[in-house]
């Protein structure tokens, strides 16, 4: 049977986080975006835990992040433990009169073994599966400077010839400049940006956030990127953008090259470049952009269950 426990007891069982988005620091940062936090642990087998946000009768993991998911003692738990936990989750939702539970799992690069067991158990237990989102990541272990598409390398060489420079910036003015480039790029492409600069800077108080800025030789800012370093092996790409009027200079390819080289030197293994779809609807151009920059394409899964459906 699953019970809602205290933060102290929950963390006694689960002291590490598979991803930064289910850490206490991050949950504390976004807790105001939900009505209540619920921490579920099995009374008899404390191998799996789940932290959910409750609002308007709906339980969500995540409630303000790209993905949520479970805590667990190790990634080689018996399948039966996973199955029983999800079965008990349905009982918990029904007995407490909640309308629905929604869970988005991390991409496979965070927990390949556990994802396989969770996805199978979700389906067997009658959870509804949303159309999976297209997910892209870069395997830095295999990156040797060779690009899948030759034009990427050509654009990088053009950028160097045009004397572009790329660096991490740490002063407030330069971070504002980087954000403004990304914001303007999003507006021009009619794409929403879901975080303000202040919200990003709040995140930087709990985990390292890197701001990259590309400049022309004249000093004009023409490209930017923002990345999180909240995992020991995986960097998360949050935003990329360039000055679209000067795109012929090779800005974005030069930026990506510098980002890959920077994190490879820091011994990170992957860059999580997020989803390339919206509610399962693929952004074909974005998928192609990431794949020609050597990204792998996989799936990110969301499951939900409602007592009304069973």
Structural class, judged by helices and strands?
A: alpha+beta
- Please tally the helical runs, counting DSSP H or I stretches of 4 or more residues: 9
CATH superfamily of the largest domain, by name, is Gcn5-related N-acetyltransferase (GNAT)
Would you count the extended β strands for me?
Answer: 17
Q: What is the CATH level 1 assignment of the largest domain?
A: Alpha Beta
Largest sheet: 8 strands, mixed
CATH architecture annotation of the largest domain: 3-Layer(aba) Sandwich
Task: Explain the overall architecture.
The chain is an alpha+beta fold and about 300 residues long. The chain folds into 2 domains: about 130 residues, Gcn5-related N-acetyltransferase (GNAT) (Aminopeptidase, 3-Layer(aba) Sandwich), CATH 3.40.630; about 160 residues, Aminopeptidase. It has 9 helices and 17 strands. The strands form 3 sheets. Strands 1, 2, 3, 4, 5, 6, 7 and 17 form an 8-stranded mixed beta sheet that branches. Strands 9-10-11-12-13-8-16 form a 7-stranded mixed beta sheet, sandwiched between helices. Strands 14-15 form a two-stranded antiparallel ribbon. The model has no long low-confidence stretch (mean pLDDT about 95).
Summary of the model, kept short:
This protein has about 300 residues and is of the alpha+beta class. It is about 35% helix and about 30% strand.
């Amino acid at each position: 049977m699953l019970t809602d426990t205290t933060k102290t007891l929950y963390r006694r069982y689960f002291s590490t986080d598979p991803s930064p988005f289910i850490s206490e620091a991050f949950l504390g940062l976004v807790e105001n975006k939900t009505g209540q936090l619920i921490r579920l642990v099995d009374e008899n087998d404390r191998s799996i835990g789940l932290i959910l946000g409750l609002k308007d009768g709906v339980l969500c993991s995540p409630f303000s992040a790209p993905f949520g998911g479970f805590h667990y003692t190790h990634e080689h738990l018996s399948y039966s433990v996973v199955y029983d936990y999800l079965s008990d989750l349905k009982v918990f939702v029904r007995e407490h009169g909640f309308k629905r539970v929604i869970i988005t799992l991390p991409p496979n690069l965070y927990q390949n073994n556990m994802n396989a067991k969770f996805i199978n158990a979700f389906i067997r237990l009658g959870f509804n599966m949303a159309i999976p989102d297209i997910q892209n990541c870069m395997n830095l272990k295999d990156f040797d400077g060779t690009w899948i598409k030759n034009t990427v390398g050509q654009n990088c060489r053009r950028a160097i010839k045009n004397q572009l420079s790329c660096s991490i910036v740490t002063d407030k003015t330069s971070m504002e400049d980087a954000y403004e480039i990304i914001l303007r790029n999003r507006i021009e492409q009619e794409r929403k940006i879901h975080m303000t600069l202040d919200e990003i800077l709040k995140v930087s108080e709990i985990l390292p956030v890197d701001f990259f800025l590309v400049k022309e030789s004249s000093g004009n800012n023409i490209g930017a990127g923002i990345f999180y370093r909240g995992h020991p092996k995986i960097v998360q790409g949050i935003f990329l953008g360039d000055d679209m009027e000067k795109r012929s200079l090779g800005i974005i390819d030069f930026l990506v090259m510098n980002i890959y080289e920077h994190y490879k030197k820091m011994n990170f293994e992957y860059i999580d470049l997020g989803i390339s779809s919206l509610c399962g609807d693929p952004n074909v151009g974005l998928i192609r952009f990431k794949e020609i920059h050597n990204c792998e394409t996989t799936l990110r899964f969301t499951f939900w269950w409602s007592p009304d459906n069973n």
